[in-house]
Records
---
Amino acid sequence: MFFSKFSAFGLDLSDLSIKIALLKEAGGHLELVSFGRQEIPENVIERGVIKKEDELIALIKRAVDEVQGQKIKTQHCIVSLPETESYIRMVQLPKIKNEEIPEAIKWELEANIPIALDDIYFDWQVIDKTSVSENQLNILVGALPKALVDPYLSVIKKAGLKPLAFEIESVATVQALIKDGTSQEAIMIIDLGAKKTTLVIFAQNSIWLTTGLSVSSAELIYDIAKFLKIDQKKAKNLKFKVGLDQEEEQGKVYQAMEPRLVELVNEINKYIDYYQASKIAKPGSRQNISKILLCGGGANMKGLSAFLSARLKVQVSVGNPWVNIFTSSSDELPEIAFGDSLSFTTALGLALRGISESKK
Ligand SMILES: Nc1ncnc2c1ncn2[C@@H]1O[C@H](COP(=O)(O)OP(=O)(O)OP(=O)(O)O)[C@@H](O)[C@H]1O
Ligand SMILES: [Mg+2]
């Protein structure tokens, strides 16, 4: 824009919510200047597919207009989509010349994803520090189907915004949770959203694996409703209020959720084993998953970290989406409650990307 300094906010779109976060740099540190959350009614977006375009446009406009904090003046944004079909893989290639990389990646994509190259957007990044040997290149490749992105691009433009980039959700989440984007240990991140759960493995300076898990908050609420023979609304209240506290409600809420959480534990274990056994874990660095960070609204559930720690025998804790925003403890805490900020992890990661884009 003409006189205001260039800025871009994070726009995290999910099936059931729109989340916004805008960071600003002031005096050498970052500040959260605007944030907001707008619920999306059922049936507007179904499993990532836009069903009611006009309604979604109106909701996005409202979300931008009604943020808390400073009014948003920029139209620029970094967007994440409610994707389940994103492709993100670490590709290992023999050391080739830089100019040969794009062609090699195209081959790799054609061999590994069920969609034609013309029908996807893709991006890649050489992960240099992780080379297993001198003769190998590790390249992180991300791809999104055009059929998914294009309708969102159109809706976002019609809402009066200018998307600078689309970011895969898990990439944004990692940007928020991993301090300075590097970790000597392998870390697993689990994003517990409303409709889906995503698992990410991060080591050194890159994502190595991402996958969707079948267990979600919605299903846990369903289990509580069924077990206690109550409606969804009451069940949701109990999930929030009681969580996994066995002392309350005669342990019934716990009992209702336990089978599905055990299923979640089994799924997580499968990926821990897979990562630790597979060639993608690198020699010369610690290969075991040393800790698990939880994020997303579902991470707020009482007793969840302890439940998972005990069963997975790995330290599980709630992630801190402010690690790359507040560098000293004296930095001012924003008005957003910490619990709410777990829901904003992806949006904050997008906002951080907004900061780096503005410096380009
Ligand atoms: N205190 C709490 N206890 C238990 N569950 C909670 C609590 N707070 C939020 N949740 C759960 O978090 C979910 C919302 O999380 P989040 O805001 O991360 O979802 P989302 O990003 O909109 O969805 P998705 O990422 O699946 O598209 C709700 O479904 C709710 O059940
Ligand atoms: Mg989410």
---
Amino acid sequence: MIEVKDTLQNQVPNVTFKNVSFSWPGKKELVINNCSFSINKSGLWMIVGKNGSGKSTLLKLINGLLKPSNGVISNLANVGMVFQNPDHQILMPNCRSELLLNINKKLSRKDITNKINFALNKVGLDGFDKRPIHTLSGGQKQRLTIACSLISDKNFVLLDEPTALLDSNSQLKVLDIIKNLTNNKRNPFTALWITHRLEELSYSDAVAEMKNGSLSDWEKPLNFHYN
Ligand SMILES: Nc1ncnc2c1ncn2[C@@H]1O[C@H](COP(=O)(O)OP(=O)(O)OP(=O)(O)O)[C@@H](O)[C@H]1O
Ligand SMILES: [Mg+2]
């Protein structure tokens, strides 16, 4: 039997960009331009930036969907993704089958059930395993996509404006869940959260701005100024 506490991978990710540039095929303009930064501590990291400044492109470079045109990316992390619209991400008809898609199939039935219950509990969806997806609210669907990252033992989750479609109640729930996961000292968990909602920044451990194709230095939210 696995220990349920081991279901969050007990490792801190280490992601480093060194002078990374990227342009989309057929375009001259560098969307990412000589960008350098690292994320090597657990916690909640946030990025803000104007529309089209390259935030989503940066996430695709981190998770390896895109390759840099120049520079070096080193990525020691098990990366999961949460998108703005959970309907673009959820594939299966109910919570259990969606979670099963993401789980290590070699586990015993009992361990699988334990992990499903653990992941649902962590995102405040106790007892939702048999629930059809179409009966979930937007916030509940978003929490399910976070549970999918947990159940597949990701240690670094990239969230691309995960609360943009949510009302303020659901927004806070999702933010609280991620905050609690990243605060857990025994099972360090790391999240990189992209947002346009400036009121969310105070939850972060570090904030940076995407501007002119590059990421600013990480700042504590109290010291961070955005204009
Ligand atoms: N698949 C693609 N092919 C070509 N160009 C793209 C593609 N995806 C994005 N771009 C361009 O790359 C630039 C950066 O886009 P990106 O989506 O990374 O910005 P963003 O900061 O995430 O914006 P938003 O806040 O609106 O989500 C934009 O000019 C966009 O048009
Ligand atoms: Mg984007």
